[in-house]
Design brief:
Blueprint (H helix, E strand, L loop, with lengths): L1 H6 L3 E5 L7 H12 L6 E5 L1 H10 L4 H10 L22 H5 L13 E8 L4 E5 L5 H7 L9 E3 L2 E4 L18 E5 L15 H22 L3 E3 L15 H20 L2
Parallel strand pairs: 1-2, 1-7, 2-3, 7-8
Antiparallel strand pairs: 3-4, 3-6, 5-6
Helix pairs in contact: 2-3, 2-8
Organism: Cellulophaga algicola (strain DSM 14237 / IC166 / ACAM 630)
GO molecular function: hydrolase activity
Protein name: Patatin
Amino acid sequence: MTKELSSNKSIGLVLSGGGVRGMAHIGLIKAMQEFGIEAKSVTGSSVGALVGALYANGNSIEDMLHFFKTTPLFNYQFLTIAKAGFMDTDKYIRFFKAYFPEDSFESLQKELHIVATNIQDGNAEFFSTGELIRPLLASAALPPVFSPIEVKGQLYVDGGIMNNFPAEPLYEKCTYIIGSNVSIVSKLDKKDLKNTYQLTGRVTGLMIYAASKTKLKSCDLLFESPDLEHIGMLDRKAIEKAYTIGYEHACRQFEILSKT
């Protein structure tokens, strides 16, 4: 089966949102490379958009991990009182320009579609042409931590709010869709629902998962590791751990496929 995949020139890759858990996407891409599998088109939301852009840009696995390890998530110099949100998302543009100097979708090596939420009209919108960095930042700008990003006169925030698993652009152009969902929802014990924070997180997770459920089932191959649920979405210390979980989970799945 992996031989058939490696010769397939029309593979689409969908990368969900999920914060630091999204490092598992990089692990999957590493496994894909080792098994000779390459996606033609990529779609992503939030952290999935960032990983997808780096993959579409031709960056190495080491470059991808370096990007997330060195780009500051919180920096007191980025605090703002002039905008909605605690961090001024525009301050991150210079970090992105080091990786995407041409700042355009057209400069990428693969077709990329990313989704962001128009906070003014309440719609999820896809971006795939023109300016790259601002839509990328918008797709990952989780409120209220990060301020909205203005693109063409409209304000945008995290794509995962409206579309956390943006498979739609691939349905008409790809014959095989690989999905990576790091917004895991598994069974919890009572002890994991003892306070308001835990309850709110669980409800939010269930809402996001419910909105993605049909699209997850539409994938020809889906990667979801339950081990990721124990990693905090903003826990930067777990970058390597999430990456390793994603890599090992994908390798096991590809090994099984190679025997079919």
